[in-house]
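Here is an idea for our session: we take a single protein and study its fold together. To get us started, please write out a protein record for me. Start from the sequence, derive the backbone structure tokens from it, and show both lines together. Go ahead whenever you are ready, and we will take it from there:
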Amino acid sequence: MSELDLLLLLLLAHVLGDFYLQPLSWVKDRLQWHFKSPKLQLHVSVHMGLSLAVILAWQWLYGWSHDSLMAVALALVIGLSHYLIDVAKSYSSNGLMAFLLDQLAHLAVLLLLWSAYTANWQWWPVMLPQNSAILLLAYLLVLTPSSVLIGQLLRSWRPVLNTRIALWRALYRYVGTCSDPDLCVARSIWCYWFYFGRQSAIPLCTTCRRPKTRN
């Protein structure tokens, strides 16, 4: 199962680099300057550093041959592919389809590199391991990445809801962002209960969350 751990760690590094270690100013700089964006180069460097750290740590932890050159080569390929994919996305409309294709392309690169490196082409095991890596990945996914995805989905509703500004803002605050601490806690609890097979308790957490009222 150590090979699957490497894939989970690479996915963790990607989620951290793309959603938690990339300020909005970097995204705007990429959209303005495209392949010339210095922030994009910095963003790619973050991904390369995270990927290199993950591969080296995994080699050391599981006793694989400490091939530093291979680790550097894999990190360089991840960085170069990330640069090309993000440059292509910068010329798009930056909507939902662009977001999904961007993330699918990154995922495909990671899967292919992982399979080539470990000679394991089984991308979906019968049972996922219950370890800290997959739990942490689940927590990270239900916070910022899910907020970005829901925000992209709600963008198509803006013309319809434009005449109902209060409704739009309330809906977006409720499900589209994670700036509300209550929502972050609720999503974390949902993730915990789902992970440990307590899905029946999720509606209870949902109904207990009431909208805030102003005094």
